[in-house]
Amino acid sequence: MISQSGATSKVISAENVTVDYGAEPVLIDVDLDVTDGELIGIVGPSGSGKSTLLKVLLGTVPVRAGKVDRRPGLAVGLVPQVEHIDWSFPVTVAECVGMARARGLRTPWITKAERAEIHAVLDRLGLNGLANRHIRDLSGGQQQRVFLARALFTKAEVIFLDEPTSGLDVKTRHEVLHLLDDLNRQGLTIVLTTHDLNGIAAHLPKIVCLNTRVIGAGPPEDVLVPDVLERTYGSPMHVLEHGGMRVVVDSPLFSVDDIGKASA
Amino acid sequence: MMLAADLFKPFEFEFFRNGVIVATLAGALCGVVGCYVVLRNMSYIGHGLSHAIFGGYAVAGLIGINLFLGAGAWGVITALAIGGIVRRRPIGSDAAIGVVTTASFALGLALVQLYGSPGQNADALLFGNVLGVTFADVWLIVAVSIGAALFIGFGYRQLLFTTFDTEVAKATGVRTGLVDGLLMVLLSATVLATMNVMGVTLIAANLVVPAVVARMLTAHHRPVPRRRRDRRGQRFCRHERELSPRCRVRPDDRSHSCDFLHRGVRCRWFVPSPCWHCCARPLMTRHMRMRRLDTLATCG
Ligand SMILES: Nc1ncnc2c1ncn2[C@@H]1O[C@H](COP(=O)(O)OP(=O)(O)OP(=O)(O)O)[C@@H](O)[C@H]1O
Ligand SMILES: [Mg+2]
Questions:
Q1: Which domain holds residue B288?
Q2: CATH of the domain at B44
Q3: How big is chain B by its Cα radius of gyration, in Å?
Q4: Which residues does A203 contact at the CB level (< 8 Å), separation at least 6?
Q5: Same domain, B230 and B213
Q6: Complex ipTM, two decimals?
Q7: Could you say which of A167, A246, B132, B288 has the lowest number of CB atoms within 10 Å?
Q8: Residue to test with chain B: of A99, A114, A132, A176, most B Cβ within 10 A
Q9: How many beta carbons lie within 10 A of that of residue B216, not counting itself?
C-alpha cells in the first residue's frame, strides 16, 4: 500500500506553517511533506485545524508564518466536506463533473469528447447511468464519488478529501476506502481527513495526528498509540490489537456515569 | 384585418420602436444576470444597487462630470465593495448589501438636499420611462447585452464553478476574484443601462422574478427535499441494523429507543425503510404509517 521506494519526490511541502484567521492561531508550526504517490490521513478532534491544513496545502488560505512549496504546475483537486456543499444548486452529475475543467477558453456546453471522458470517469467510479441525475438525488456514497470524479476529471495529481466518509455506513465506507486505495495504486497522491480512527485511519500507510500542532506522524503502528492519541484528543484512549490491526477504544475506566459525576 | 393594422401602427414611430427594443433587451439581460444573482443569495442587490446609483448621480452632478459616467462608476464601486465584503468578512451577503447600498443612497439624498437635484428628477429614476428612451439608451443597452453575452459565453464554466463552489474553484486555478469582480461590474452596468427604462423598482423585480421562476421550473430542482430526508433515515437504520438485528419496538411503545427496522421490506411509497422512532416518523404520511404497521407484523 505504501508508496514506491526510490525516486519519491516531494510534491507539496509545508514548513513551520502558522495560520490564524485574524484571531488565535489555528495551526502552529506545522510541518508536512507530501511526496508523490502517498496516501496520508489527517486525524484530530473537531476544530483542530484539519480542514484548514488541507486549505493551506491547496493554497487557498494565507499563512501567517512559514512557507508552503508546491511543485510548479501541480494539478490539485479537492473533495469538499459534504456539509459545505449547496445541495439545492441546480446541477446534474455530468454538469458538476464538467464544470471543473474551467480554465482557458472553453465552450459553455460540455463537448462530445468531454462527455465521453466524463462517462469514462463516472464508469470508473461505479456511477454509470447517473450522469443526468441531480446531485441531490444520490446516496451519500454516490455524492462523495461525484466530487471525486470531478477532481479526477481535472486530471489532478494530488487529491484532497475532507472527511470523505462522514455519515456513511460501514459498507459504503469500505467501498470508498477501496476506491481510494485503487486510485492510489494507480499513482494518485491522496490526502484525506477523517474522524474515523478504526474504520479509515488504521488502514492508511501514513497518519498525521493534528491538534493545532502536529502531535505525531507516521505509520499506524507508531502513531496509534495511547500516548499520542491522548495528547491529540485530550482524553485517555486504549489501543487493542485485533488480527494485526490496531483498534482504538475509549478508556474502559471512563463511563457515562463518571461524566455525570464529574459535571455534577 | 383592421385590427392587425392597428396593432402594428405604433411601430411607425421611432420612440415606440426604441421602447420595444430596449424593453426586450432589458428583460433578457436582467433575466440572465439575475440567475447568477439569485444563485449567490444576493437577490436584494438589484434593489440596493439601483438605490446606490442614485447617490452616484448626486455626486456626479455636484462635481460636474457626466452624470452617466459618474453614476456608472459609483455603481461599479458599490458593487465591488459589496462583493469584497462578502468575500473577506464573515458577514452575510444580505447584510453587506443592506449596509453599503443604504449608506450610498443616504449620501445621495443628503447631497441632493444640500445642493439641489442634478437634473433628472427622482420620479424618472424611480419608475423609468420606456417611451422616453433615446437612441443613446438603445445603444447602451445593446452594448451591455453584447458584453454580458461575451462574458457569460466565454466564462460560463468559471462562473458556474465559482458560483457553486468558490473554494474548490480557487484551488483548481480559477481566478475567482476576477470572476466575482466582473460579475459585479456586469451587474452594475445592467442596472445602469436599464434604469432610465424601467426604474429602480422594476429592475429589482426583473432581476429576481425570472430567475426564481426559472429555478422552480428546471427539471434539476425539486423544491421538496424528500429523498435527502429519507436517505438520512436509511443511513441511521443501516447503522442500527448492525447493532441490533432484532426488532423489539412495538407501535405503542414510544419510550423505547429506536432500533426498529424494516428488514429488507420494500414498499412502493417508502423505499429506503426508515426507522420507526427516529428521524423519518414525522415525515410519514398516513399511508406510510399504515404500511409501516403492516411491515411491523412481518418483522415481528
Ligand atoms: N474562515 C474562518 N474564519 C475564522 N475562523 C475559522 C475559519 N475556518 C475555520 N476557523 C476556525 O479554525 C479552527 C479550525 O477549523 P477547521 O475547520 O480547520 O477544523 P477541523 O479540524 O476541520 O474541524 P472538523 O473536524 O469539525 O471539520 C476552528 O476553531 C474554526 O473556528
Ligand atoms: Mg473540517
A1: 226-297
A2: 1.10.3470.10
A3: 28
A4: A177, A220, A245
A5: no
A6: 0.83
A7: B132
A8: A99
A9: 10
Among chain A residues, the shortest Cα distance to B151 is held by A108
Q: Which three-class secondary structure state does DSSP give residue A239?
A: strand
List, in sequence order, the alpha helices (H) in chain A. Answer: 50-58, 93-98, 112-124, 140-153, 170-185, 220-223, 226-233, 256-263
What's this model's pTM, rounded to 2 decimal places?
0.75
- For residue A121, is it within any domain? yes
Q: What's the rounded Cα separation, in Å, for the pair A254 and A256?
A: 7
Residues of A in contact with B156 (CB under 8 A): 106, 108
CA B196 from chain centre, in angstroms, equals 23
State the nearest Cα–Cα gap between B156 and chain A, in angstroms: 5
Worst-scoring range by mean pLDDT, A24-33, B237-246, B270-279? B237-246
How do residues B87-136 score in pLDDT, each as one tens digit? 877 788 888 888 888 898 888 888 878 877 666 555 666 677 777 788 88
Q: Nearest Cβ partner of A88 from B160, B221, B238?
A: B221
CB B71 within 8 A of CB B108: no
Q: With beta carbons less than 8 A apart as the criterion, state whether B244 and B259 touch.
A: yes
Closest to A144 measured CA to CA, from A192, A111, A103, A76: A192
